[in-house]
Amino acid sequence: MARFIRTAQRTFISAASKTLTDGTQSRIPSSASLLQFKTYATCKAHISPFTANIIRILCNEIEYQHDYAPPHQPARSFNSFTVHDRPGEKWMTMRARHGDNEDIKIETTMFDGCALVPKPGEDSTGENVVLHISLLVDISKGQGYPEMEFLCSAWPDHLEIQKVHLLNRDKIVINPYMGPDFRKMNGKLQKTLRDYLEARGVNNELCRFLHEYMMNKDRIELIQWLGNVKSIMQGKEWNEVCL
């Protein structure tokens, strides 16, 4: 999974991200901006009725998404971590310092999977869908030290460690040994590594924050995507969308 995350980061090029607004402007469209195109279809004679209908449907969907669950500005910090959003991408980065010489970097996906769990209660039947987030936690002590990389799963209420890697970025090793499956490690060793992350703020509370953050980011990206499609239909540049 770590290789998948690394590869996806290198190959994922979002055209929209090149033309989104910078950090000094809001990425969340206002109600007024969402309604700007309503007069557009009537004053541009070259837009066909078919295209005008598509634009109208897109506008209705944008309004619905914005009114049903309006997104808010993404958080810029969480506890000791600073949060760096990646507009137009399926990623987010968090950074923190621990002690005098440790740098912590977390790279996390948007929702990338789910699991079915039984509904709570003795009389309940059926299953609930629980969303999954993948994250890489890199802990570095500076040049000359290998990095520890934890591949984790963030569920809504708890953190699971999948793998623990030792990375020497100054030395290329062909087919390195990446360590055992965390779930097959000795129980005491598992607890020790969980406590190690817990002391650095990588814990169940962080999982709850990530799920709330990604739920909001998902709404932002959806509204932006719908706006980009609408802009193309109108023959506008993407940097005019939802501003």
From TrEMBL:
<protein>
    <submittedName>
        <fullName>Transcription initiation factor TFIID subunit 5-like</fullName>
    </submittedName>
</protein>
<dbReference type="Pfam" id="PF02330">
    <property type="entry name" value="MAM33"/>
</dbReference>
<dbReference type="InterPro" id="IPR036561">
    <property type="entry name" value="MAM33_sf"/>
</dbReference>
<dbReference type="GO" id="GO:0003743">
    <property type="term" value="F:translation initiation factor activity"/>
</dbReference>
<dbReference type="InterPro" id="IPR003428">
    <property type="entry name" value="MAM33"/>
</dbReference>
<dbReference type="GO" id="GO:0005759">
    <property type="term" value="C:mitochondrial matrix"/>
</dbReference>
